[in-house]
TrEMBL record:
Keywords: Membrane, Transmembrane, Transmembrane helix. This is DUF6644 domain-containing protein. Residues 27-159 form the DUF6644 domain. It comes from the Bacteria. It holds the Pfam family DUF6644. The chain crosses the membrane at residues 33-55, 67-89, 95-117, 138-162.
Length: 183
């Protein structure tokens, strides 16, 4: 069912126009990459503060209040540009091993953010100026690792090493849901 939707999406005039555009695809992709610096940069600052490795004299609550609006702005830009990049090349992207790995890490990173904000919100309480509890530090470290992984896997989506139109190991064909290749 998803395969049929993705195949249909690839044939829509907007998808074709965006993919074949001389400048628009490059503008969308560049905006996506630049917004990564805003989003992940602010997340990294927050995580490093929770880990006690940066901004040690600034309360965690103040760091969160000042940086989260910028983080949300970066996230919104990333979602919009990411959706447009998917829309431009939906079949290849959907069947990309790298895309699927990135989406898994995005899901895990989102759950980590949700868990952190559910536990601490914008006011960490007693550890606002002191060392964070072990669970908060673990969440910050997991966040850094997950976002690095998202960037890493996202960067590899552009390469065709594991595209379905090439013979692939059975594992890659299974994970990517390649229909066209039979081992």
């Amino acid at each position: 069912m998803i395969d049929a939707f993705v195949a249909w999406l690839a044939t829509t005039p907007g998808s074709i126009a965006l993919h074949e555009s001389l400048y628009m695809y490059a503008i969308v992709e560049t905006t996506h990459v630049v917004s990564i610096t805003l989003f992940v940069g602010t997340i990294a600052m927050i995580d490093l503060r929770v880990l006690g490795l940066a901004l040690g004299r600034v309360p965690v609550s103040q760091v969160l209040r000042r940086l989260l609006p910028w983080t949300v702005l970066g996230f919104v830009i990333l979602i919009v540009t990411g959706a447009l990049l998917f829309y431009a090349i939906p079949e290849r992207t959907f069947h990309s091993f790298w895309f699927r790995a990135k989406m898994l890490l995005l899901l895990l990173a989102g759950l980590n953010v949700w868990r952190f904000h559910r536990a601490y919100g914008l006011s960490p309480g007693a550890w606002d100026m002191g060392p964070a509890p072990a669970r908060a530090r673990f969440s910050a470290l997991a966040s850094l690792c997950l976002w690095i992984g998202v960037i890493f896997f996202g960067r590899f989506i552009a390469y065709n090493w594991f595209d379905c139109d090439k013979p692939q190991p059975a594992f890659i064909s299974a994970v990517s849901a390649c229909r066209s290749f039979t081992p």
